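User: I want to check something. If I give you two sequences, will you return the structure for each one separately, not as a complex?

Assistant: Yes, each is folded on its own. Here is the first sequence with its structure:
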Amino acid sequence: MPGRYFIRYEAAPRYLDVSGDNPNAGTPLQIWQRVGGPNQEWEIIKSPEDGYYYIRSNIRPGVDRYLDVRWGDTAPGTPVHIWDFNGGDAQKWRILDDNGTLVLQSRLGTYLQVESDLNADGVQVVTGPDTAGRTAWRLEPVKVIPGTYYIKTGLASRYLDVYELGSAAGTPLQIWDKVGGPNQKWEIIPVPGEDSFFIKSEMGRYLDVEWGSTAPGTPVHIWDFNGGNAQKWGIETQPDGTVALKSKLGTYLDVVSARTGNGTRVATAQGAAEPSRRWSLEPIVSPEQLHGWADLHTHPMSHLGFGKKLMHGVPDVGSLIPAGTRGCNPTDMRATTIEEALGHCNSTHGGWGTDNGCGDYIRAAILSHGLDTRFVHKTGNVHGDHEHEGYPNLPFWPHQTSVIHQQMWWSWIERAYQGGLRVMVSLAVNNELLGTIINGDPPRDDRASADLQIDEMRAFVGRHSDFMEIAFSAADLRRIVSDGKLAVILGVEVDNLGNFNTSNPSLDDVRAELRRLHNKGVRYVFPIHVVDNKLGGAAVYEDMFNYANKFSTGAPYTIASASDPTITLRMSSADWWMKPILDGVSLIPYPPAFHLFECPFPVIGCWDQFRRINDLLQPDPRTAVYDSIPGGHVNARGLTPLGELAVAEMMRMGMLIDLDHMSERSMVRTIEIAEAISPGGYPLMMGHTGIRTAEEPGSERSVSAAVAARVGRLGGMMGVGSADISPAEFIKSYNRAFEAMGGRVAGIGTDANGLEPLPRATPNLDPGEFYSGFGKSRTGNREWDYTAEGTAHYGLMWDFLRDVERQPGGGAAVVGNLYRSAEAFAQTWERAEQRAASALP
């Protein structure tokens, strides 16, 4: 139901209207005949408070005015006007079904109504009690939004109805009084690649012109899906706000002989002018819709990836602490206290010394100079060390500028949950090259590392079952969120799915691996990550990953010119990103390096481990050709034949498939496979990305508006990437995604614990004002001030969304849509499960 609407006063053909088309705060509201201008367009936005909405005027671009009860007065007859957003009770509205019409009740307890029974242009809009007739409104979509509707004839208060609740193919249609049953509910589904829709009855079949006949007077019934023109309908908005439903055959949906009685049959006719061919789409107000935001991309167990020596700190007492990361512990151990879980990071990140026998200068240099480059608490020595002190003071980390310290401690996840988080995709992640060059411990291979993380995530969620639970199906997700908990979805984001890069797998091998992962609870899959694998090519966007590609496959990326002008990134032919760092580290005195090599004195450069790493990071002469490839660069590899079969198998299993990190060629082919699945295609995910444009070009790691539109038409979902983003930048990115996806709600993709920074705060916030009535996050002796530090840990995502909501220019609308993303995720998953049976074998 959230979306853009004209709000019609039911007692007369008049609409909620901003007087005089005046955008100023305080302008009163009236009813007026429909003119279709922006002063009659309203955007309904889910509020963070369950059951309430903000209603924003669309009167001017960039003008942020909301439906508001003047002075927050509860007295009957109080004028209603537009006002700057403040999020108070005077701007919160419940939208309730009242025997076929809607009533709008403010949080103050009064109702939106007209001032008198005159029903003429210019009558003022005020608040009052629920007075019959004067509080009845309807919503008419400005733009058709995929969803479920009642379809009302323009002739009378009758609705499109499947005869006698029939579900058999060929059951005729009629008009009937509104009863609200499944035979009167219709799902509008975009046709992939076309400006038309399938219209599916909740009885299970589709609106269809009998025999595909173009002759006027042909009966319309429900029929099994076939995707033909007899089942494709254009939705044409008429000047009076109604719509005409035009079959792809050229005829219109019509009430036979313009009769208005119950039981009148429905057929086709020529032209849209007659009232019998006018219909209203009434969005179904569902009290069962989920409320809360969805994060499509997190890594709570990443401390167990990358050789278990990259991310420091574990997410709770009971989590596995890797060997050599807590006072040089000789073996993996379970955290028994928060001091052990979040203690100092010297063992993990520091250099070798007599006080730190498990330290590693090479690892410290690679982490500090290659990955954690922006951390503000560095000490400035040659290996780039940083301050290590941990709990209870936590003076240095977690921090918004550091990506190698734990940011998902369990109570920080709980704080995000308290701020509305209701769906969280938890992904196992790994990179074998990083695990090798930082001298990590087993398991370093993707399959075993992912297995360990999945097992530990299941145990972690079990320890916090008071507020979270793993969802293994869309029905699970609905139950969990409806019960007031956080639904966690398990997924894998690894380079070498099934370790297949070292073998020659068959489809049966891939199918067995997918079944194995499914049996472990995995429902969300990245077929491709940052390196090419047996399924297809990866997106090229960072030179560092070319070393990983060579390490995993034996060769650097194969590059081609981009056909899309918004792809401007060029890969380097000789970017040895670690050379100056390793040159410096090689001279650090290191007594254990006294080996067989000739050295004037023991230094790291004499250590055989250093020499092996140095060899791994040498530039490859095969990349010299990159300089001769014109334009922006993309990976020349798309999906392999095995990859195409694997993607189809994932669809047949009803898995959620994420396109992020695919090369553009792999991505487009995956979309083509999804579009071929009937009816309406298979939904796909893009969990942590953004839209590139001519003004803000990028690499194939982001997506074009055209690709996003195709995913939107499939019923897919995007998580807007929020790495190191400001609230103003996030609003811009979110709105761009919302528009490109055809008005589909997006979630967020934080990439928390995934080597990406969490969002920044708006500069120069007043902490006293920001935290008035809003508590700060505290752990041990540490209290975080988001206004000064930004999103230092995952719990401060609540603060970030508060910052976004308070931004002028649509911040509240973005947060309102974000709080609909738990429902959007559930619907996308349900669609995947429904389409699974139609996927290719």
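And separately, the second sequence with its own structure:
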Amino acid sequence: MKHLKILFFSLLFLLSNLAKTQVLTWEPLFSTDADSVTIIYDASQGNAALEGVAPPIYAHTGVITNLSTGPSNWRYVKANWSANLPQCQMQPLGGNLYRIGFRIREYYGVPESEQILQLAFVFRNSNGSVVGRNADGSDIFLPVYQPGLYSAFTQPAIRPLFVNEGETFNVRVQTSQPANIDLQLNNVSVAAEPGTQQLDYEITPSGSGQNWVKSVVSDGITEVVDSFYYYTIPASNVAELPDGVRDGINYINETTVTLVLYAPEKEFVFAVGDFNSWQMSDASLMHQTPDAQRYWVTITGLTPQQEYAFQYLVDGVIRIGDPYCDKILHKSNDVFISEETYPGLMDFPAQAQGNIVSVLQTAQEPYAWQTTDYVRPPKENLVIYELLLRDFLGKHDFATLADTLNYLQNLGVNAIELMPVMEFSGNLSWGYNPIYYCAPDKYYGTKNDLKRVIDECHARGMAVILDMVLNQADNECALVQLYPNLNQSIYFNAVATHPFSVFNDFNHESTATQYFVDRVNEYWITEFRFDGYRFDLSKGFTQTNSGTDVGAWSNYDASRIALLKRMADQIWLTDPNAYVILEHFAANSEEKELSDYGMMLWGNLNYNYCEAAMGWLSNSNFSSISHINRGWTNPHLIGYFESHDEERSMFRNLTYGNTTNPDHNIRTLGVALRRVQQIAAFLYTVPGPKMLWQFGELGYDYSINYPTNTDASRTDPKPIRWDYVDQPERLNLYKTYKALIGLRQYPTFQTNDFSVSASGYAKRIYLNHPDMNAVILGNFDIVSANVSGTFQHTGTWYDYFTGETIDITNTATTLNLAPGMFHIFTDQPLPTPELEFSVGIGPNTDNPENYNYALLCTPNPVQGQAQISYNLPQPAQVTLSVFTLTGQLVKTLYTGFQTPGSYNFTWNTANNNGMPVAAGNYLYRLEAGSYVETGKVAVLR
């Protein structure tokens, strides 16, 4: 049993670390937990991220013990990531070498009852922005031994070893105590030494192929066996690339594929997988093209429609999937994907190493497209629904989305924008950490289910836009791993050239990057029929180095413009009418030039619109929602006040809204919703493309930073509140959005002859068109106010939402508007929208004579008991309840019929089960007939 245990530990450590470059050396070699160990880190090895980085360098370190659940479960970590402790600072030795030493168990503070198995490391600079890891991005582990006999190959440093014929190398075996060492080559003894702790032997390879080196170490009681293989590369393996193939998986016929990998500066590549039992051989060694730029191999004898997993083994160290594959398997992530989401997902192959393999499949069943008469909406009139599948549907899959499109069609949007759906690290991400750019993420379902989503959208006249992330790639991306030392990468900058950079920054001036970008953009349009792209962080597509200066980064950049035009031109060669949308936020002169070229640009007015909605008017001017006010020629500004990246307007209203006027308290639900109606009216009536974020049409009121209200929760999953549709006041907001979006079918709301005036409390939009003129007036104050408007002519005008007429006798007309009230007037009658409540915050038909219900909770904050009181103007069915901020019912204080009068109820800060509630904020809610009002109370303990 002892022999087997030692052998297992040795093999485990070999698989996890020794197949990588020698990032660490340490003394003593067979350290026990009682030893003092000295560790030297070579920053030029592994991913080499810290090569050349000036000290100080810190070790971020912990241990793997017998109580760890896996290699990621570090215990007794010395310091938080941001803490620069002196005892974790590495001593610089020069030449990218750094040293640290300590007594193991004492240093980590591990109790004697817990067995230490490994020391775990990554290394970082002082602010943690640059991290040294293994070449494949994994953590670095060192073994910790129990007393006894152990052996290890300490030369060659990299195993398995790949050598050329005749290239001599040294083999060194070391042991923890004197023992007999027998060294064998292909099971034949070639060297032996009794009673020693080290044996050296030189091997000169002959002939190509795989050879096994084995050490048998014995002290007469215990025998320890260790082994590795070396592979001798054939002297010549150069061949021209076959005609008609390109980088990636090329399906020749139902039984044959040709694999092509672009890998300049690499020495050799094997293609190993299910099709060759994961064995390296001369047959699996890929040919090198004469220019040494590409590697290729043709695989024959495949079974039609059978899936085969495979990897590329590059230079004997790097294992990657095919960068252009349309499916990967991920050892760590796929176990969380259900059979319902992805039926029949094949298991990760036991023979594969690392976390990721590609999948190929000949004779795939093609998707049968149903929609043949689709006409793409004009980009100038797009209404885009931005959607994160994870937080939109409980099942988070393409198949369910395809069955949910009627909801969006009924709303009136004519495009959906899917946040990134290509394979990204993990399963629960927003998707801005892509790794395999041509493979739909399986957490969302199959690729044919995605095609069905697009097919169903096109059948409804709705475009589908893909959020494309080509500014950065995560560490598991094949292109990153192919050149782990980014200083040598043909794709990425070693240091990003701009602020707000995450992961690995693409160099868009590199021809290798440009080829990859063009292939990816071509793929999703041709294979999936996407209508275009929204390019994330497009301002980062530059080699002009602005460091951390956001202002300099935003300045006009001719080189960036040229790169974006080049990319757009290539997209338009594939599809001349494809949408090209940029998340840019650069100098207006640059955005105008890109707009003139045919691209669309995001117009973020979140702050100004939300200030207006909250009743804080000094910074509420959203006039730049108009492309005309920006000096643009074309309506290519995609205006919005909510996106995935901005705080939700309803959360702002309920949390920060103006409460100065108790009769117009913006922090109450009804008022908050109607203030969103108002800003929506001043968004969707402005000509040009517009966008909304999912569930904004229902007044989604969870913070972008839910649940902790810190940036740490920004990308965390959020509650999915389809039940909001059942709440009349929220459904009314949906219907308002629908009515506003419906106006955009009329030429008046597509005109280039309009103006937006949005300074101060009185905001106005004027639209001029031969068919119909329109005037939109709104009072954004929290008290009633006079709002003047200049109508295009006198005569009869029509209020869109009420259907009532107004006789304008003077073009310069002043109206007295209640707080939050707005009107859309047209000089032609239009169908009156079906709304359940009056629009705006004026007189409410469900609130007779603008009655003050005087809903109040005292004391507030409360510790013990609270009194919740209100007035009732007319008989009504009443419910008084307390909820959590997430909408869960806590306590029903009253439900029943009440006559007019004043009422008071005691809440003892307990729930319906009589249990005291936890300290925190809660909502109390009055429902009287169809009147609803909500307040917030803080409970102290």
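Because they were folded independently, the notes below concern the second chain alone. Residues 1-21, 837-847 have pLDDT under 50 and may be disordered. The chain is about 15% helix and 30% strand.
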